[in-house]
Amino acid sequence: MLAATTDLLRLIAVPALGWAAWRDVRTRRLPNRLWYPLLVVGVFALLVDAGGHLPMATVVDRLFFVRVGVSLLILVPLAYGLWWFGGFGGADAKALMTLAVLFPTYPVFYLATDAYPLVATTLGVFSLTILTNAVLVGVAYPLYLGVRNALRGDRSLVMFVGRRTDVAALPREHGRLFEDGEGFTRHGLDIDALRMYLRWRGTTLPALRAAPERHRDPESVDETGDPTDGAVDAGDDGRSTDQTPADLDADFDADFDDPWAAERFLDDIEGSAYGTTPEKLREGLRVVTTRETVWLSPGVPFIVPVFLGLVVALTYGDLLFGLLRALGVA
């Protein structure tokens, strides 16, 4: 492989983002220290490349700084804004901001067969290519999910955005319930919040399902524990269960001022439990204690399509530009 030294240095992003995607799928937690070395490499490579374009004597030199400006002054604020408004998770935004520093312009890798990436845009901002690739990969996922559910016989209103999951597996899952006591909902209980509640009560999901009437009584809460942040790897949640859910009286909650001690839990913890309200927690607990399977959002973090978008960008190039060019509009 022949390439500029700075472009070879930037390839450190591939294993780093691959590890980040794997870890985020497993735990939904990424350490902030992951981004610092990548930013150092990005700033160093950018300074070296910028030195090669000073003074700005040619059009190529000026284009380099325009592309760097677009990457840093558009993509970085865009990623931050999407995080601020809740469109991205913190790790997703940090990944995009880091890539904006690492890949402001197109790298070039010469192999025996060809020069890669194969398809470059006219604008030439590589970080934007990574982003558009990630969006296209992300859009394809609901189609895959719908086909997968159809082939499994799981057809419903949410088959393109959710998957049916065994309740017994929830302690090791991520995502949000698409169900409450009334039917389908877009605002169901977050599974991380469920883990926080179970740890706070010092109980497990199997125990909850075995005796829901007792657990619904707020007086049954004695000593409470550390709810943690709901991460999967922060304790033993008792994944397996052979208990069958009990039949519950729909009006049973009316017998208590604070069914399931939901208000006490949310008042007792620091901060919020992923936007959970007492009513949402109670509805979620009713669902997980009365059903064998539930519809769950897939909870795939955006950093996964970002990683895939990076790999495609480094090999093929810009998916959207290639498509538009094939259609004759680019």
TrEMBL record:
A GO MF term: aspartic-type endopeptidase activity
Gene3D superfamilies, per database record: 1.20.120.1220
Cross-referenced InterPro entries: Preflagellin_Peptidase, Preflagellin_peptidase_C, Prepilin_IV_endopep_pep
GO cellular component, one term: plasma membrane
Domain Prepilin type IV endopeptidase peptidase: 12-139
Tree of life domain: Archaea
A UniProt-annotated Pfam family: Arc_PepC_II
Membrane topology designation: Multi-pass membrane protein
Transmembrane segments: 34-52, 64-83, 95-112, 118-145, 294-316
Residue span, Preflagellin peptidase C-terminal domain: 279-319
Main location as per UniProt: membrane
Compartments reported by the entry: Cell membrane
Keywords carried by this UniProt record: Cell membrane, Membrane, Transmembrane, Transmembrane helix
Disordered: region residues: 209-248
Protein name: Prepilin peptidase
Organism from which the protein derives: Haloplanus rubicundus
